[in-house]
Amino acid sequence: MSEATASRPTAGNDTPMVQIDHLNKWYGDFHVLRDINLTVTKGERIVICGPSGSGKSTMIRCINHLEEHQQGSITVNGIPMNNDVKRIEQIRRNVGMVFQHFNLFPHLTVLENCCLSQIWVQKKSRAQAEKTAMEYLERVQIANQAKKYPGQLSGGQQQRVAIARALCMRPEVMLFDEPTSALDPEMIKEVLDVMIELAHEGMTMLCVTHEMGFAKTVADRVIFMDQGQIIEEAPPNEFFNNPRSERTQLFLSQILGH
Amino acid sequence: MTTNNATFRTEMIEAREAPNQSRGVIGWLRANLFSGPVNSVISVLVILAVAKIAWLALGWAVFDANFLGSSREACTGDGACWVFIASRFESIIYGFYPEAARWRVDIVFALLAILIAWLAIPRLPQKKWVALFALVGFPILSWILLLGGVFGLEHVPTRAWGGLMLTLTIAVVGIVGSLPIGIILALGRRSKMPFVKGICVLFIEFWRGVPLITVLFMASVMLPLFVPGNIEFDKLLRALVGIMLFWSAYMAEVIRSGLQAISKGQNEAGQALGLTYWQRMGLIILPQALKLVIPGIVNTFISLFKDTSLVLIIGLLDMLAIIRAGLTDTNWLGFSTEGYVFAALIYWVFCFSMSRYSQYIERRLNTGHKR
């Protein structure tokens, strides 16, 4: 345990990067998020797990306003969220997101996928944007496919491109929404390797995932959610070896049972 | 040696060539036309019928036809007498446009052809500027050239316009106008703002619910009754606006079907990257949606092109109307077949070109993400 901690960069100072206070959300009459409180400091790596329908995706999608909440407050990198479009766009420039189904733009090449928002949001020149894009594509080891279209790549390659695309905007926080759930088993590792590398570089990360190995390796905290609320929140060591809530114990026995 | 069910492979199997299938013309014929006695008989009968019809049609249109001459007396053969078309050719193209000014129409035709070719052929450079000219410079220039009245050009009122020139004017204005209006309407109909959405739904459902003939009739006959007498809109202009709005409603629904086929994740990915609504629509959603509905868009273009002939009912003489007017000429009674066949051929050439071009574009834009 002490060795594992030593290999990580120290988890940030105490600047809150993401601050969620008393967040409540309803889909019609259905109360999906119930009084969520969460503070993520700079450089912290959070893994969120829980059964399907527990609201974990919905919660991280609230952070960049892909979902609208009804009560409570969210502050990202010191910017308080409200319904103002300009404010939301400002927050989104600080937050990168990786989706379960990659959501690459199929009509653009890999390189164009990575340049689009640099050119249109950050107003960079094409040459500058391509330079940054190639840097990050290099880092996720897919630079040799830059001229291809997403449809010509495997799932694992597409997800690595999606990570590079998000990183090109130089975000302060990265959100991962089940990034390996749609991948063939053989391709999960290549994506996790990229995420682990990113974690070791000190990126603030919130990952919704069922990859418990990943949680053990890189997470500073594991959050367990059920029925729209945070049930348990603990460092991975404690979370896996000594879960306090019964619901967590049941969940862990289900997914680690084999 | 122990016996069990476990096996393992030590050498991988190399890929081999596919077994030799019957290829070539003979192979194709055998597989597709003569695969059995019943199919062979059907094939032979159909081929004979097609050959017979083609022979009759060619005989009428070419072998037994008259091409040269200037009057009815030249029509001596058993087949078609294209002298009728030839004698009316100028008015089929230009309508009643004054002869001395027809060079202006020729310039517009030539420019249009060059612009379309330039934009359609991928190898030619400077697409952006050519497109800009086609959408801004060309309409203004055409308007000045065709209408005249400035720069010493003789004024030619729109009531003198006619023939193919009028058909193309209406079709091009309709096509170029209805696409962007349709896009705006389609986006508006999917808007989350109830007011915008309501207006768009109302607009689309109104224009889709009335026949084009009614629209043209309203524009031509009813509208002047509602506006003060001293304000006068050009009749052609009114028809153009009517046609544009009418077809934009259809276009909107075609495009909306494309928008609905794009997964929500595409928009979310754009949002997550900080792109604004119009950037997301213009850079991510519309390029994909429009590509998906190219067949539907071109289908609408083709309908629009053919329905330009309806302007006849408000007294505008398009190509078909000019040909029909020619049929009532007492010198040329009884040549309606030639007239209609010729009109059909012209319409077909334009519509078929659009169809072929759309198929070419679809192939060209395919980036291999179809499943």
Question: How is the secondary structure organized here?
Answer:
The complex is a heterodimer of chains A (258) and B (371).
Chain A: H1 2-7, E1 16-27, E2 30-41, E3 45-49, H2 56-63, E4 71-76, E5 79-80, H3 85-94, E6 95-98, H4 110-120, H5 126-139, H6 155-167, E7 173-177, H7 185-200, E8 204-208, H8 212-218, E9 221-226, E10 229-234, H9 236-241, H10 246-256
Parallel strand pairs in A: 3-8, 3-9, 6-7, 7-8
Antiparallel strand pairs in A: 1-2, 1-4, 4-5, 9-10
Chain B: H1 24-32, H2 37-63, H3 83-94, H4 102-120, H5 127-147, H6 163-189, H7 194-209, H8 212-226, H9 235-261, H10 264-272, H11 277-292, H12 294-307, H13 319-327, H14 336-365
Helix pairs in contact in B: 3-6, 3-13, 4-5, 6-7, 6-9, 6-12, 6-13, 7-9, 8-9, 9-11, 9-12, 10-11, 12-14, 13-14
Molecular structure report:
Chain A: It is found in: Cell inner membrane. Chain A: Residues 18-252 form the ABC transporter domain. Chain A: Belongs to the ABC transporter superfamily. Chain A: This is Arginine ABC transporter ATP-binding protein. The complex is a heterodimer of chains A (258) and B (371). With 258 residues, chain A is α/β, with parallel strands linked by helices. In chain A, 40% of the residues lie in helices and 24% in strands. In chain A, the strands form 2 sheets. Chain A has a 6-stranded mixed beta sheet, with helices on both faces. Chain B has 14 helices and no strands. The two termini of chain B are 50 Å apart. Helices cover 68% and strands 0% of the residues of chain B. Classes of the chains: A alpha/beta (258), B mainly alpha (371). Chain A binds chain B through residues 64-66, 85, 89, 92-93, 95-97, 99, 101, 103-107, 116-117, 120-121, 149-152, 162, 165-166, 169, and chain B through 263, 265-266, 268-269, 271-277, 279, 283-284, 287-288, 291, 365, 367-370.
